[in-house]
Amino acid sequence: MERYTDRTKLAATKDYCEGHLGLKQVARRHGVNVASLRLWAAAYRIHGAAGVKAKQRKYYTAEFKLAVLRRMQDDNLSHRQVAALFNIRNRDMIALWEQAYSGGGIAALSPHSSVRRIAMAKQADPGGGDPDDEKRNREELLEELRQLRMENAYLKKLKALAQAAQHTARDKKPKS
């Protein structure tokens, strides 16, 4: 990710907020990323010049995270909007907070929460790996494999039949 100086960010943001040119033209003129300029402009409109200055890495409390999530839900705001409103530099973090909260409540929002670590581990390994798989014997696993192959073949056949029906319907349409 390219880093821009505070001076570059502020100049591009002011230029865009004056409204003489569009987002892409201003971004091109100042040599900055369009998505970044959009974020800077949103933060600038709410917080002024302080909204575009470089921010130090910040650790947020569980209460702050919950307040952000509640405001987002109450006002039906996007991640980008709530990030600008609360001056959070990484809007992707809000999505992670949302996911952690839905999986483990307020305890999962704590930075050192075991609930959060478990949620993050599940996110990293969505397959999860059933611990009972180790205890299953070869025949059970082979039977499951046969069943999954059969389901897969069935779905492929269903898809082929649906496509054939679409082609038939298309061919039956009268030509104008």
What's this entry about, in short?
The chain is mainly alpha-helical. The protein is built from eight helices and no strands. The protein folds into three domains: 54 residues; 72 residues, no CATH class; 40 residues.
Structure, described:
Helix 4 (62-74) crosses helix 5. The radius of gyration is 25 Å and the shape is flat. With 176 residues, it is an all-alpha fold. The protein folds into 3 domains: 1-54; 57-128, no CATH class; 131-170. The protein has helices spanning 6-17, 23-30, 34-47, 62-74, 79-85, 92-104, 114-124, 138-172. Helices cover 64% and strands 0% of the residues. The longest helix has 35 residues, at 138-172.
The residue ranges in which pLDDT falls below 50 over 5 or more consecutive positions are none
Order of helices and strands: HHHHHHHH
Question: Compute the gyration radius: what is it?
Answer: 25 Å
- State the separation between the terminal residues, measured CA to CA: 54 Å
Q: How many separate domains?
A: 3
Shape: flat
Helix percentage range = 55-70%
Structural class: mainly alpha
Measured by DSSP, the beta-strand proportion falls in under 5%
Number of helices, counting only DSSP H or I runs of 4 residues or more: 8
| Count of beta strands | 0
Mean pLDDT: 79
- Let me know the largest β-sheet: none
